[in-house]
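[Automated response] Your request has been received and processed.

Submitted sequence:
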Amino acid sequence: MALNPLDSTQPSSRFPASGLPADNDGPIDTLPSGLAAGTPRIGWRRHALLLAAIVGCLTVFLLARSMANHPHVAAEWRQGNDDRLELVFSPLPALKEHMGKELLAVGGAGLEPVPFNSLALTHSSRWISDPALRQRLLNARLTAAHALADGQVVLVFRDGSRVEIASRPRGYVELGSMFWLLSAFAMVVFLVGWIVPLVQPREGNFLYAVMAHAQAAQLLLSAIASVPGLALPVMLVGSEPMLRTLLDAITGAAVLTAVMWHPLRLPGRGLLATAVWLVTGAYAAATFASHLQPMAWRWGDMLLLVQGVACVLLLSWSYSRERHPFVLVMRRFTTVTVCALLLLALSVSYVDRMPMDVQPMAMAAPMIWNVFLASVVLLVPFVSRSQHVMREFAMLAGISTVATSVDLLFVAVFSFSQFTSLTLSLFLSLGAYAAIRQWLINQMMGARALTTERMFTHLYRIAREVEARPERAGDRMTELLRNVFEPLEAQFVGGHGKLTRIAGNGAVLLVPVPKLVEVAHLQGMVALRFAERGKRLFTPEDARLADRIVEQLMRALAHDRAVERGRSEERTRIAQDLHDDIGARLLTLMYKAPSKEMEDYVRHTLQDLKTLTRGLAAKEHPLTLAAAEWKTDMTHRLQAARCELEWDSEFDADPTLSMVQWSSITRILRELVSNVIAHAQARQVRIECRLNEGRMQIRISDDGSGRNPSVWSHGLGLGGIRKRVKAMGGTVEWQERQPRGIICLVDIPHLTPPATTAA
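Generated structure:
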């Protein structure tokens, strides 16, 4: 059971008027600016966190000191025959002669010895379902605890020997490494439980603090129970199982309450939350009143399972109302946690049917379960940050829980030996983990199935479009990121930044639009909400991928511009060569022409050459200037063929044409006029050019002999016209003109962007 304590994305605050998602700070990768700068406004938070760290360290130190000063009998035990404890080693002189003997009972000064076995040495009875067995173990542990506290312990061995030993403090060295590991883990969970609400103070994060602190307390109880010795301190022997169950119940209640408010506020959440806490409080009151009487274990586990199932149902309801990826991810975590709890509860319910030599293994369940649940709670604030260590730790803890549960079930149901069941359960659990590990990661965190080929296809297509129409860079960037991340929502918003960042704890990805063109209103960010159509949260890997995509887009544009510069320089060189060589030869030929007609023809050819070289060498081609050159060129060519030209042009703007556009339109007009001269024998040609809101339309009509254009063969001439028009995104069509002649219609929808186009 888990929730995202930092998620602040509400359905009513998708993209507010400011353009950026509301509440886009998080405690991990995007700390509030005031916290980073150390302003007085949030200085108290750092002080509070420092105080919490001091309190946590002091708590661990006092706990360690208390356990180090707790009375102890220096002896090492192992499980012998019939679940008896066998003395392995002791530095005490009174016990050295009893090495290898089996312990029968433990008593004290004024205390009657009671039977004491390996199951009693396992301190926690949290997962013991049999009331009679739990009561026997409780009596044995209480007797041992009182004897240690009184300072005189009586050990009765199976051979009838009786040894009285004075207990002494165990010291820090004998606390064991597991105590320090679990205490350190508890400290981490405790501090994260403070960091989350301090960075973002709101109700959801305070509920997360309740969960984290409850699980930190659970880990400290496990740390105490891991200390080797005959018994826990007297005050914990009876209350420890009750405290463990109650802490889990509080965690479950906090989870249920949180999913009612975040990320979507569910209807009736107030009444539902009140009912949840009333049931939890009633269970706590009944537990304290009955002090773990029969059926208390079953009621406690039933409460936890009901809370888990209710959490899954609430998350499903929330996801049906709004496809928030966090809800989907947390529902998967919750389902895995509930299944692990159900399997563990089922396995330990068979403890009384297991052989005595296997029953102590069931007592390891509390520690495994606590580590698993605490790791899930600790993972929640980092779920969108893809912290691999925490994710793997939580998964391995879950696999350990499953392995222990399967081992106990094998022993109870199939009567396997301890070695056989342990080997088989480990083999099956690790094999299943290796087989479905990637699937589990994909189910928990989400997976992107975009191929590299598809990504680069989109990338270079967008690069070409941005190069042709740079003022649409924001729209093209949004389209590219849509194809890569498949968000539920994407839009161009205000803001600025150099690197991509995550907002809403993974709900929103903010990608800065690079400075592709010198247009002020294009500076902003693309905001993507809910990756893969709401199936997963954004992660730092997504942010790095977005930055790499922007970088590759800039490189593609730089490459295209470098190629275009090379082409421009080559065109200028060719134009210069044509002007200097061919132009000089034509000029000489014109003066040596044998007739007036030949001289005029060469003069027109020379004029065409000058137009061509001027166009090749020009860096800019304003539409009005290009149209004047087209009109002059067409007039000269048609006059030579004794054909009259009627020219009509109307432009609502004077955009600058690219070299490709200028060259294509020039060659289209020349080829169409050449066809009229060569094939139509026309006496009149009318050319109309219109530019309206970026749409270029050219209409050429003649009164020649051409008919039935649908049966024409499209060779190099007409085929070349079609290719050039298509390259500019347009269409070309030939029609019959009445009473005679042909009409050619060229339509280029996006020659230039409309004057009113906004990015």
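Summary generated for your ticket: The CA atoms of residues 212 and 463 lie 48 Å apart. The longest helix spans residues 540-591.
If you did not submit this request, please reply to this message.
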